[in-house]
Amino acid sequence: MKKLILSILCCLVLGISTNAQQRVLKLGDTLHNIALKSAKGQVYDLSKQKAKGFILIFMTPSCDHCLAYEKRIIALNNKYQPKGFLVVGIGPYGDNEKDYPYDAMPAMKKLAESKGFTFPYLADEKFKYTWLFNIRQTPRAVVLKKQKEGFSVAYIGYIDDQPDEKKTPTKKYVEEEVNKLLAGKVN
């Protein structure tokens, strides 16, 4: 009985210490870089891009909500890429074809090609950035502002307030944040 109690306590302590070590980024925190393999086969490195910032979209090929947002994500890229904010898609399951065959790199590549994505679509490695930004559903957006020492987290959340692709959103959260950053209204 003592061994059982000791084993349970050890598991609890290890679990608590492991969770304490998992850092989640919040608004205002700094991310040094993201460098992940793209659906085109190359490593895409944010720090090597000429940009004022990035709009990261966590999305999967088999998610109905993500599919409903495809046109809006493409529109975000078309609107903000010329202004220096680059859209980057990130597939949380991209590196795990065994467990997630409908959302892994082959499916991501097929989706990017069939929809003509002009933005990179990257495979997250072991959910590193998915967990780092506390992404629990897709699609979700993260807006990063380029700084001298990396990227400041400016926004984490929904793209807009309308998941129905047939309806027009009344609040465009990502656009509002990027517009503030472009106007210099946010540090």
State the CATH topology. Answer: Glutaredoxin
User: Structural class of the helix and strand makeup?
Assistant: alpha/beta
**What strand order characterises the main sheet?**
1-8-7-4-5-6
CATH architecture: 3-Layer(aba) Sandwich
Q: Can you write the helix and strand succession as a string?
A: HEEEEHEHEHEEH
> What can be said about the biggest beta sheet?
6 strands, mixed
Number of domains: 1
Identify low-pLDDT runs.
1-21
Rough shape? globular
Q: What is the distance, rounded to the nearest whole angstrom, between the alpha carbons of the first and last residues?
A: 57 Å
What is the count of DSSP helices, taking H or I runs of 4+ residues?
Answer: 5
Helix share, percent:
25-40%
Cα-based radius of gyration, to the nearest Å: 18 Å
Q: Which CATH first-tier class would you pick?
A: Alpha Beta
GO molecular function: antioxidant activity; oxidoreductase activity
Organism: Pedobacter chitinilyticus
Signal peptide: 1-22
Protein name: Redoxin domain-containing protein
Describe what this molecule looks like in 3D:
InterPro entries: AhpC/TSA, PRX-like1, Thioredoxin-like_sf, Thioredoxin_domain. Residues 1-22 form the signal peptide. It is a single chain. With 187 residues, the protein is an alpha/beta fold. It has one domain: Glutaredoxin, CATH 3.40.30.10. 34% of the residues lie in helices and 21% in strands. The protein contains 5 helices and 8 strands. The strands form 2 sheets. A 6-stranded mixed beta sheet has the order 1-8-7-4-5-6. A two-stranded antiparallel ribbon has the order 2-3. β2 (35-37) and β3 (43-45) form a beta hairpin. The chain is globular and about 45 Å long. It starts with a helix and ends with a helix. Mean pLDDT is 88; it is low at 1-21.
